[in-house]
Structures
1.
Amino acid sequence: MYRIVCESYNNYIQDFSSDKDDYRNKVIGFLRLIININTYEEEKIKCSLDYRKLETFVYRLNKDQSNYSKVSSFLWSLESRGISGVDYNAMTEEEYEEAIKILKMFLNLTYWG
Amino acid sequence: MLELKKQLEDKIYDMEKVAQVFNVEPFELYLLGGSACVLGGYTVRATRDFDFIDLQYPANLGKVFVQLRDFDMLEYESTILSPRYRERARKLDIFNYIHVFILSVEDIIVSKIIRLGSKDIEDIDSLILQADKDLINQIIDEVLSREDLFQSKKKAFIEQLPRFKERYNV
């Protein structure tokens, strides 16, 4: 599902390209790091906020994955790329819940194509 | 369990209907995991999940795949598969529009070696009785020869191999 999430993320962001301050756009912005692993590595060195958010998100998703179908192969592909999650506690509960909602839309192919 | 098999078949029939309604060209689907085991009559494990290999499908197939409801599209580069899995896959002739294949018992077993969790062991215990062990060894070699498999996955697979070989005398 990794490829689907990447393509869906790009489609989703395009929908909000005219409103970069949109809340949901901001909430999911950290996912840009999974699209390009070089960017991920650069942000990792800087330990940027987006990097910490992604790691926190993946960490929590790993713990919660039994509650969400289709997540496991996505996480499996992230792990292949060296992204397995660290608990930086960098997301609020609200941000996490919102990000999950959007990820579920991606996994349900809502934004694919 | 026959009921479960029929439920899985019905979801694929729904997929076929939608594909035809939207004029989606027939395509191939290679199933592994629990749904393949049930549809192929390999095991009777209860599952409603469809796991299939991502053949770089175009996005217009999205409306077709959603008919499966619970599905995972597996990235080839992250999956323990031989490059020759398609040669050994069996076509399910009950479907007329979509070309549905299930992986061989041996390919499915090898795909499970990387985890070897209690559920995988339970599955392999059942599958190994109908498997060709020489073929399993051949598939393991084919997987190890892959250069397009993520190194992290290949490493994890190699680490589990001795445990698998010892348990199943392969």
2.
Amino acid sequence: MGATHLPSTEFDGTELDDQLEAQAEATLGVPPTEMVQLLGPDGRMGTDSVFSEYAERLDAEKLRGFYADMAAIRRFDQEATALQRQGQLALWVPLTGQEAAQIGSGRASQPQDYIFPTYREHGVALTRNVDLAELLKQFRGVSNGGWNPKDTNFHLYTLVLAAQTPHAVGYAMGIQRDQRLAEAQDVEGSAEPKAAVMVYFGDGASSEGDVHESMVFASSYNAPVVFFCQNNHWAISVPTAVQTRIPLSNRAKGYGFPGIRVDGNDVVAVHAVTEWALEHARQGNGPVLIEAFTYRVGAHTTADDPTKYRESSEEALWREKDPLDRLEKYLRAEGMADEAFFAQVAADGDELAAYIRKSTYESDAPDIRTAFANTYVEAHPLVAEELAWFEEYSAGFAGEDEGEGAGR
Amino acid sequence: MTTMTIAKAINEGLRATLSNNPKSLLMGEDIGPLGGVYRVTDGLIGEFGADRVVDTPLAESGIIGTAIGLALRGYLPVAEIQFDGFVFPGFNQITTQLAKMHSRSNGNLTVPVVIRIPYGGGIGSIEHHSESPEALFAHTPGLRIITPSNPHDAYWMIQQAVACQDPVIVFEPKRRYWLKGEVDTESAGPAEDPFKAHVVREGTDATVVVYGPLVPVALAAANAAAEDGRSIEVIDLRSISPIDFDAIEASVKKTGRLVVAHEAPTFGGIGGEIAARISERAFHSLEAPVIRVGGFHMPYPVAKVEEDYLPDIDRILEALDRTYAY
């Protein structure tokens, strides 16, 4: 299945996107890209010849869950931003605007799937049951990770752009081998449920060579991996148009696997498309690229100032496509959620924020001895020698700063 | 004991690895039907199949990056980089990802990836085929680096590298691939720690520390010095990270003089690290400053003049003369 076989749907892109599409069509002969959309900005559910089937599997409880997740992670994002402003975090990477892309895709994964995030996937982390307080440790400077990926099959954040994409493909190649081994052994009931890998990256990271190499490897070995690109339109201050002359989803065709562009602010469509793609990969049909067409409403990080590189009118345009608003409209219109539900969601958000704040305050610096211990798995004489020196050096200060918060 | 070349010894070591560890696999460009450009993986794809001996796309970052992913899934990948100068497209994956994964996961994840890199000059090749970038990797915490200089070590060290839970880079001295020697393949396992140095020639007057391709050069220099009545001890370092400083210190305390030689540029190289550490540890035992012998501060020169660049017997003898001048 390629993008051109997917149903045509309406989407009013920004002026920038229209220009990009027009340019691609005029200069490169690339037809306008179809975008999968089910739940429109007006809160009305559309139909799609392929993906409506997936949307129909979602009952009211699941849809309310999507809303609760998106609201929770937005509240978390606000709290983390505030904590950074108060000096409690060194940096924060906001996700507001991208909730549907993350909750929709994360909720489409199954526990046996393994997820490689970039550094903005707080919503996906929530869907994988990562303790969000653990997630903040990296930004507080008390850990370079924070959680054990083995507990949730949600890998550590990777800050070097796109470096995680070949890891995902290698991991998927491992799954492939595990499945072959299980099939060869043919022990009844012993086979694990089929698994796939999903790897996240942004439109900026799509320019990195590692994305290209990953897609070549994935295609060459038909690896069960879903590349999930969140096109949030800005790589810090550089627009998508500088990263690509064609819609990113079209690149998949060059590698020989399906590419789908989905309305990244439509949680129902994102969930449907991702469910399809993961199933496609799990069944041994190879990789898929999903481009979630969304928007980073806030700054790239709290160190960034979007007013220097984009118009506030652009942000306003995208706020009209807000992923939470449109689901709320739908839930209310269909009678799937009442005022009490939304009040409860708000109360849960406040409770989460309080927990996050308290946990952050209590999250202290680790003992540097843990860094000595974890540089290598096996004993290392240089580390041992330097640790011994550090111990002796530290012992020289014993008693000097008693009463002044010792604990160097 | 069986006599074989270093290339054959690595081949046999990889064969033993693939036989003994069902989760081990080899990956790299041209390592399948071709058997690698140096035929180090010759015949292995026929024995173990394309799933265990994987001919990869031509992409070093992809090779290292996917090896990391496979290791995270519980596999034991042995990645081959075709030549030293081509490792740099994979440098990011090695230094920012592979080396740090265990540390940044607070010890929860291990990535036991092995990277094989043929290195060093003396083969008359064109640019990017003769470099010695070991110091660039040795400077990165989290990596281990070993380099065999003889077939016995080559056979066992590759297997020990795979068994190690840390990432290990094995720098293979390509100009010694055809060096023959005895290999004990019969014993149940390696007798020695791959991260320990060997005294390959005992002596009393000065110590020469070398590794990989320069070991035979240092031994020849020591033999030549013996004719002048000088008793030179030669240490094969074997491990570049960690460095067995205890072995060097013990030798220097006996001989009082130290020369360190490698093919890589002298500036910022392994020799400087050894000189500094030994100066700290054995200052009062030294009769002379530690002398370094290495490549010049220039890109590896064209093959027609590489003889002038590479440390040879005379350069090591000249360095010894300098130590004796104090």
3.
Amino acid sequence: MTTLLTFPKGGIHPPESKELTAAKKIEVMPVPAELEIILSQHIGAPCKPTVEKKAEVGEGAVIGDVVKGLGVPLHSPAAGKIKAISSSVHPLKLNAPSITITVNPEAAPLHYEKKEWRDIDPKELLGKLKDAGVIGIGGAGFPTHVKLSPPSNSPVDTLVVNAAECEPYITADHRQMVEHSAEIIEGCKVILRILGISNCLIGVESNKPNAFQALSETAANTAESDFKIEVRALQVKYPQGSEKQLIQAVTGRKVPGYALPSAVGVVVQNVSTAKAIYDAVVLEKPLYEKVITVSGKGIQRPANLLVKMGTRISDIVDYLGGIKPELKKIVLGGPMMGFAVSSLDIPITKTTSSVLFLSEDEIDTAPHSQCIRCGWCLEACPMGLEPKEIGLFVEANHAEETERFGVFECFECGSCAYVCPAKRPLVQFVRLAKMKAKRK
Amino acid sequence: MIEQQGNLPSAQQGLWKVSISPHIKSDESVEKIMWTVVGCLVPPLILSVFVFGIQVLFITAVSVASCMAVEAVSQKALGRKVTVRDGSAALTGMLIAFVIPPGVSAFLPVLAAIFAIYIGKHILGGLGYNFFNPALLGRAFLLASFPVAMTSAWLPPIEPGAIFSYLGVSIDAVSTATPLAVMKEQGMAAFNERFGEGASLYTSFFLGWRPGSIGETSGFLMLLGGLFLLYKRYITWHIPVSLLGSIAVLTWIFGGEGYFAGDPLLAVLSGGALLGAFFMATDYVTSPSNKISQIVFGVGIGALTVLIRLKGGYPEGICYAILLMNPLSTVLDGWFKQKRFALPQGGEK
Ligand code: SF4
Ligand code: SF4
């Protein structure tokens, strides 16, 4: 690793806290007795159930599909019987409809064989992704077949793979890069073929030297003239893995405000999505299980787990030896952008990257006070916005005027709120402002 | 923290904290910053006890205690949360003591505290909403109300070991003029006669053995405190460097007999310039937040300081210079905004 790449402005260095799980191999968690699959897993329309109550389903069988609009089908993560089609607690939307499956413990797990994909037409490959239910599992959960069909008026020439994993605690991508580098590189080649391009840049933060090495070696050993895959080392800085920041770090291109990466000829995919794409195309295995990190000082045994979609947090807690008394907060996703939940009944979805059990000394509980105008938030903001002003305007009931401070460019990375010495809830202010302000 | 109200239909509800991201925060706090700055002012304070006697400790204690008391009472009276523990009032008290003559009556810092904290800060909305540096406001108020005491109660340095020498002595009998006042009123020759020439002059100013306010005593300790704040990243170089740099350059050009004959080093070491540059012009609330506006702000203060020192009646011009620039902070921030990551295509929409 020579010079480390990074984005030009802002960013923070929170404690990485990855040592809890960074060296732990991915464990396959036993399938729990019951799985609860939320019907709304991604951006776009929620799925409609395609099965009836009491029906028997096999592993990988379609149990839900979109009727119209953006979306992908849902698959049963295990063989079993449909117990209920009902509403349940959803991490984002409360009382989202879901399908509950009673798992058949006798059923043998499916095995998938590798298939040849290089002769398949890109259109058909996209279809395979859709059929396998692949969405961007690193973040927002945008259906991948749509993301890989960029508008024809902005030609794409580079695939950027996000392997930064800049959120503290999370090591799921890291472990996959170490243990599944071959599948990831192959997955990147599938994406390149779909896009009809040959350039791929993978950005890895330099705190994962073994992942960097594994990917670089695999890329070199499987080099093909059609695919130019390079691994780039990134500085350890949050939010290195944010789309616009990552693109600038590895390609030097700046995505204009409100625009998509395709405006500068780039498509970004998360490294774990690349693995899911491999599964969907090369193994023809639908997306119904994923690697997550379970960490924090509030859980007995932090781990990287391969879990079935629909596994409830309570099952994970049982499997990992229970929670510790110092547990104060449960967070789905990273500590910077994840959301706190107050129930163990919530099931894992396709976009859950981690479950954190945080203790008192890991979280922030200080009450917030008045802004002292220190300007630290301005310096931390990777988008060059003015979080301080947004907060002051929201407090003064002028949220509708915050458009000029760039509130819609804010992707809620939380860097500003992290550094604020007055502990102001700046992300909360931004969300309120976004609700009130109109984008001109 | 505003709590996210979730009506989760679970028996577990309320057991764990639920709030909006981020869930981790840095361990810096307003309290930590303010008390650290106060701490940086302790070494010069201790030194001045040896220079001017125990009297300065007494004046400082009165000033800090009355600022904290006025803060608590004002907040109670205005129905706000009492936040004296955050150290901002203590810092104001410390700074007031640092910019008034050590020989004044203890009654003066009490009045300054009331003016600075109640009028200058809480009437305007409290910490974060005041647009003048409270300590300097307090000093300006004293100077307007007690011009004689405020310009004559300077104490000459004491003999080593005689730290109780001014107790019980009429201050009138011992008070003296500050170096810049001597230079201004009696000329360079008188100045050199009293405070020395060349290297020994710089040394005495750098180490602090000369009359003046507490904040003027030791350039060395002030600089050390300022460097510590820089190291802690509580302040950045932008304001102190642009401020001191412009004082030095402008004094060099205009401060002597004929052009380019001034003494830049002396200008920086005297008149509380270092205290002002590191501890007062950098006050978060009353200085700009953006880097470019900070530089403009610093240069503005430096230029005004030199102007007041050379043309006006106040040798310690930096105090007024800072007060004059304070209300411009928000204006400057509006003019020199930091660059966005990227603006929408086709300019700002
Ligand atoms: S949350 Fe928004 S305003 Fe705050 S640092 Fe991130 S992008 Fe900037
Ligand atoms: S970091 Fe917090 S206190 Fe400082 S300017 Fe921003 S909002 Fe205000």
4.
Amino acid sequence: MRRPPRWNLALGAVLLLLAALVALPFWFVLTGSIKVPAEIIARTPTIVPESFTLQHYAKLLAASDYPVYMLNSLVVATISTAITLILAIPSAYAFFRMSFRGRETLYRAILLAYAFPSIVILIPLFGIFAKLGLIDSRLALVLVNVAFALPFAIWLLRSFFAGIPVEIEEAARLDGGPPFTVLRRIMIPLVAPGIAAVAVFAFVTAWTEYVFASVMILSDAKRTVPVGFSGIIGQYQIDWGLLLAGASLSILPVVILFAFVGRWFVAGLTEGAVK
Amino acid sequence: MTTDRRSRLLAGAALAATLPLGAAAQTELTLWHMEQPPHRVERVQTLLDEFNESHPDIEIRQEPQNWGEVYAKAPAALAAGAGPDLLFAIPDFTPILKGMGALDDVGDFVEELDAEHDFIDAAVEAYSYDDGVWAVPLYNMSMNLWYRPSVLEDAGIDVPETWEDWRSAAEALTTDGTYGMGLPANRQLYTDQTVYSVMTNGGASEIYDEEGSLRFDTPETVGAYAFYDDMLAFSPPDAPSWTWGEAEACFASRACAMILQFSVISTYDTQAEGDPADLGVAAIPSKDGETHNTIAYANAVMLLSRDEEKLEASKTFVRWLLQPENYGRFLNMEPGLFMPVTADGAEADSFWSDPIVETYRDQIETVIENSRNGMLFGFTSGRVFPAIAAISAQNVLAETLQSIAVSGEDPAQAVAAGEARMQDLTD
């Protein structure tokens, strides 16, 4: 059935508005990072840059510890994501497949982790980590990130497992596959889009985590991007060019992750749609 | 080789191996400061490298922190035994660490340094209470009125001296797209500082009376708040969310004709025209135009180590840092923002020979002159009320302004509510 032209027009307008809402802040940050300082701080912002400079990037990379912060963030976010996946996949499968008393209660209870604002548990957790000798270590951040990402990851993956026709799993079991083999060979490939979504979620959560990273890490050499960067931009004086260059670079790893995993994610969804 | 001989040889080798280690034993210190912008960290590192090289028995490393987190982080780290040996502070941060028993009296040490360098009295007073001195003053900051002479001249306006002049100037300079005055109204430290700068010039500098009771709710305070609210009419519409950086950007971009700020020199020099002849700085106008006060406070360093060797090494570093040839370079980690707290520091070649300081020497001399009438709420008239730390931490001065400027409350009612809130926080 053909849609009337005015319906197409309305849809197009909504899409355009949505694209503008999402893209405009990025546009201002990215283009701002290549403007000269006077143009950045001009009261009336220029949408198309009237100047071009890479001085802010040069300063950021040469005069600050930004590259160290980026490396730390990459290490912490990557390891946090890997551990989240390693724990979430079998846990979600267990919640989906295993029958035990209190399964539904436990499944719902794990989301209680999100009931507490992180600031509330910050100081008690600091005390515990201090006793364990984990203060000022990246491991502390990995543990915190995994603890916060895991509940949602389990929820999300379980729903992906639940979406797989039961006949597929039964056929694999009839062929004599033990549960771990069925999970590894049959189920994981089928829930690949879910795993991709969880990976993106866990990575972005770890990449942007600020509260714990700001308190648990004491030394400059172990800081992650959000904390190290907030210091670079200063308090009494703000170097706006440095701020915009840092913000632009900080989204790079997430964009790259989306470029790789997102493609797989979309491909998986499409495959599922035609089966 | 017999087992006995081999054992003796091994023991001898082990002893020999420990000898050089013992001779090279170093006292390692950690310094936390909140001067995180890269150029400040770099300057501090240059000085630390020089110190470490000239004092082979001591090694200091810096760990820059953020003002936003240090209020929670430092007490937690100290409680966990992971805190620094030296920590920079401002007057209302010090009572927090003193309250948890982390500070020892450094009065004798400050006296020794005072005899050699002559501290500004107010700088030491802010850290002197409860029969002790709790930190060593290091660098001063004071709020000033910044303006562009060319803008005022074009409008035929003199630099304002009284509140009346100030209001008229702000009104006249507010034209299409530009604002006469940039004042914040955010619930944040910057607003605390600008509000108090106006209060001190309206006869409301004392938040406590001589007995230590709150006396915030006075006609002078109400008058100061009402005046500030009037002036907000000549500020940009986004000013209620400003911190220091936004105010500076407004000034540097010529959108604000005047602002209150510690210093704009660095931003003006690097992000605006950088013409020293067109950068004006003056004392903050006062109600009657007679005495011009301002908010000012000295940053200091707290010596936190309880280990005798580390404490002595910390003192050695502070002694070294306050030597004029080092001290000027330390202050110029941010030229034009940090001012000396010692008499010989104020004359040091290392301070005045910095290229930026040379360029803006007139402005910097005015800033130093203005800071002589500096004060800080809760630390006035030689009396210190440590309970001010709670009031400061909650930004009650700014919160009171928000009640007037954002919620439209009557200034008298808002100030009365502000005093009640202060009372609650300090009871």
